[in-house]
Amino acid sequence: MSKPQLFRGNLFELEGVPPLRRALPLAVQHVVAMIVGCVTPAIIVSGSAGLPANEQVILIQAALVISALSTLLQLFPLGRRLPLGLGSGLPVIMGVSFAYVPTMQAIAEGYGVAAILGAQIVGGAVAVLVGLFVKKLRRLFPPLITGTVVFTIGLSLYPTAINYMAGGVGSVGYGSWQNWLVALFTLAVVTALNHYGKGLWKLSSILLGIGAGYALSACFGMVNFQSVGEAAVFQLPQLLYFGIDFEISACVAIGILFGINAVQAIGDLTATTVGAMEREPTDRELQNGIVGYGVMNMIGGLFGGLPTATYSQNVGIVTTTKVINRVVLGLSALILGLAGLIPKFSALLTTIPQCVLGGATVSVFASIAMTGMKLVSSAEMDYRNSSIVGLAAALGMGISQASSALSSFPEWVTTIFGKSPVVVATLVAVVLNVILPKNHSQKKP
């Protein structure tokens, strides 16, 4: 086959290889939209765990590489002709998820990164089981329930953003006017670009906001490049660098979240096919996509890659542009993976002051909460549904903010139910949705 024929792939078709000059800008667009969200959880968790700079670099590096490999598996699945394959074959981007951050923070503070990775392996197994029984489990998580969970996740991340805006708990200048000035300036840039920017300017608002805040923070002497100078130029992810610890309470908490996110992935996969391909995903695509998601998280746990999930912002790009070519998104994954193989790049990310990250991510956390609210409002807000949402959020947020109320219980109870509001909110919402009587309009005919 001649070269011109080889590169005749249509950007708006799943198969084919489009010319690099057309594919590369679109691939970079996807990377710009998700890279900050991909590395920020690793930065937050490393701070909670008290990791030194060199280990922060390794955690960020693993997050990028595992996200890239997870994306490639979804785009180019294994065993497509077998009864059970790995990967959906749909145009989606995978990255480290904020949904796990509140729980990971609690685990990191109590047990360290090894306990997170051990729980992640267990959670990956849970996701595989959800994938195998996706039809039956799907009915337990209607939009009302997933919306409540997502809303609670957003709310639970607000204190993290505020503490970061103030400079980070325990830092020398915590709460100083310089930190708040930089944080609010960063937030102003992000907000202005989100509402007044167009095209790539709007899409890369968070990245550009961090760049602007980073420049201002450098003027205050907040940036230290020592870790960049000490980092290697090239390095592969290291197997079991942080170790593995199967702490039961951590496994239960993370396992529940994996079950929720596995079901949530159905929404992203469906949004992709309906919005960009004008069809519903097949049961096989959903099953293989979730099973592949679970398996890659199990592998990621061995290499220090934190829990991944489908990225909704990239789903938005796909449904808006209708560009579904797998090579385009695969090129995004390759860029992401290469960035992860260069420790100096990962080290550069660790030099971003916490006040800058706080100013940039507070809008992300607000967006997460509002996404949950939109899902909740898609259901009729009668007395029954209002009770489910209100009680789930109240108990979830209330217990986590007054975790000393569980001090008379065993430590594992506090770890599972008292540290992260997401677990409590999920369990309360699911149980109430099952036991509370439904209105006639909500009952199956």
Automatic annotation (TrEMBL):
It is a multi-pass membrane protein. The keyword Membrane applies. The chain crosses the membrane at residues 31-51, 57-76, 83-101, 113-134, 141-165, 177-194, 206-227, 239-260, 327-345, 351-376, 416-436. InterPro entries: NCS2, Xan_ur_permease. GO terms for cellular component: plasma membrane. It is found in: Membrane. GO terms for molecular function: xanthine transmembrane transporter activity. It comes from the Bacteria. The keyword Transferase does not apply. Keywords: Membrane, Transmembrane, Transmembrane helix, Transport. Signal peptide: none annotated. Its main location: membrane. Belongs to the nucleobase:cation symporter-2 (NCS2) (TC 2.A.40) family. PANTHER family: PURINE PERMEASE C1399.01C-RELATED. NCBIfam families: ncs2, NCS2_1. This is Purine permease. It comes from Candidatus Avoscillospira avicola.
